[in-house]
Design a protein that fits this description.
seven-stranded parallel beta sheet, alpha/beta, Rossmann fold, 7 helices
């Protein structure tokens, strides 16, 4: 299976790194920012660098939309997996072009309110995973995965 793992650096990347026992079993490509922590954690991985910051930057949203189109077209993943944040939005909305499924894992530290990225991606998410029972009440059709450490 070809997996495209899309996330911001920092905590979002750390959450996906916790799933290493799963993603090492699959062909994969990462999309994240060119930051010190991401470069260090993903030194041996196939990485495409996205444009940041994504918060309130229409310019970088546009640039990441073009990037998403190119990466999806060239890599043709079976699954696009994310923990957020904003960089994931264009990848989730454009993934239909290549027929990829989407999996969204809501972050560990947002328990009682929805994240902006989750609100934007939820309508086009095939499997929406949460880590806390309280998060299930926020997102209809979510699946409780449990804590990812």
């Amino acid at each position: 299976m070809r997996v495209l793992m899309v996330c911001s650096s920092g905590g979002h990347l750390t959450q996906l790194m916790c799933l290493e026992s799963w993603w090492t079993q699959h062909e994969r490509r990462w999309v994240t920012f060119d930051t010190e922590d991401a470069v260090t954690k993903l030194a041996a991985e196939d990485v495409v660098h996205a444009h940041h910051p994504t918060t309130r930057s229409l310019r970088n949203l546009f640039r990441n939309t073009i990037l998403a189109w190119r990466v999806l077209r060239d890599y043709r993943p079976d699954i696009v997996l994310t923990t957020g944040a904003g960089v994931a939005v264009p990848f989730f909305w454009l993934r239909r072009v290549v027929g990829a499924k989407t999996v969204y894992l809501e972050v560990f530290d947002r328990i009682d309110s929805k994240t902006l990225t989750a609100r934007l991606c939820h309508p086009v998410t095939d499997l929406f995973l949460v880590q806390w029972p309280e998060q299930e009440a926020l997102y209809r059709d979510s699946v409780l995965l449990g804590k990812v450490w």
